[in-house]
Amino acid sequence: MNLGVIAAVFELCAGVAAVVWGVNLFVHGLREHGRKVTQEVEIRDSVKLPTGISYRFTPVDAKSGSASQDCSGTPRGFSDPQLSPGERILIDFDPGYQLFFYPAGRYPRVRLWPVALAATVIGAGTAALGVFNLL
Fold first, then answer.
1. For 45-76, b where at least 16 C-beta lie within 10 A, e where not — what string?
2. Which of 51, 49, 50, 56 is nearest to 83 (CA)?
3. 7 contacts 129 by C-beta, under 8 angstroms
4. Angle, nearest 10°, between helix axes 113-134 and 3-35?
5. From residue 5, how far is each of 10, 15, 49, 67, 122 by CA, in Å?
6. Could you read off the pLDDT tens digit of each residue along the chain, which spans 135 residues?
7. How far apart are CA 91 and CA 108, in angstroms?
């Protein structure tokens, strides 16, 4: 087998893998957006980390006004992220991935869409170049 054919097949496979990874990342982001909930929470306390302030909060049950499980996360997209204990705010967050929370209505549809788009475009270009080199 010619070395050029092996390189072209490798290029084609790498391009297809990059496209699959980019599409998977995009679909995962959409799935994450679908899991997000908008809920009133009560801030319990905060801790200052090297990456910023992280808060512990408890979602408040709208019907009974009682608190449920504790969650924690770092605010993103707030104009002033300084929150005080006991304060009740309305936020968007993903209960399965509580690392970040956003103001109500501001949860990003796909957080890593630039990476997913770049991987898909670069992968499609690489795969096309691999096909072209095979011909």
1. ebeeeeeeebbebbbbeeeeeeeeeebbbebb
2. 56
3. no
4. 160
5. 8, 15, 52, 63, 21
6. 688 888 899 999 999 999 999 999 999 888 877 888 888 888 999 888 887 888 988 888 755 555 567 888 888 888 777 888 888 989 888 877 777 888 888 887 777 888 999 999 999 999 999 999 888
7. 13
HSE value, Cβ hemisphere, 13 Å, CA-based, for 116: 14
What are the tokens at 115?
């990476």
pTM, 2 dp: 0.62
CA dist list (Å): 92 to 14, 20, 124: 37, 29, 34
Beta pairing partners, 59: 41
In eight-state DSSP terms, residue 117 is H
